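subagent[fold] <- orchestrator: predict structure for attached chain, return tokens only, no commentary.
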Amino acid sequence: MTGWEPLAVLGAGFGAGILTSTVGVASLLSFPVLLAVGLPPVVANASNTVGLVPGALSGSFGYRRELREHPRVTAVVLITCAVGSVGGAALLLALPPGVFEAVVPWLILLSCLLVGAQPWISRWLRRTRNEPARLRHDLSPATVVFAVLTGTYGGYFGAGSGVMMAAVLGLGTDLPVRVVNALKTLAVMAANVVATAIFVVVADLSWAAIGLLAAGSLVGGYVGARVGRRMSPTVFRVLVVVVGVTAAVLMLV
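subagent[fold] -> orchestrator:
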């Protein structure tokens, strides 16, 4: 990388760190920047996953109070996403790049649709329940399955995986948005750490890009956690849909 490129990657890392802890679409910022500086798609994706681990770690630390509120849910989210990401990392290494490039924009759009429609889906689910209405603070078996699938996607590509986890937790529980944000950030961290352990051994990586992303995301992740605590549900959904749809459209054209 020469000229403006290192600064762009560093800035992308900072911005991606903030997004990791807020709307959960970090890779939608950092991944296109890595492509713009000339990295091949699969190399860019693996390097992006490794480089954003510090951001997810600092974001999870910033949300430590929220994560302590529901320790059982926190443990389940951590384990399910870690397990799922192993399969996702294997898929990324096994599938040809053409498949990777073709499915990414559609996965991003699906993530945005889930988050945008979450209030209506949640209301419909409540109406179809026969038992008395009560707040759901534990994960049902179905929610656990979707958490594993989200972890698999996180290990495969990761862009929008935080959005998908927010949708899963939003539909499967009645936890406050700040707690959902905390759990979503932890899920991203778990998936990225496991995928990183695999990528470091078997994947082609750009260590220059990883170092710049890591430095920026470490600061951005903690800043994002402070912002995420104060974010309203409406603002959260609007930002996710706007940023996600924009990124997906840009990747399709």
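orchestrator: received. Logging for downstream: The first helix runs from residue 5 to 21. The chain has one domain: 5-252.
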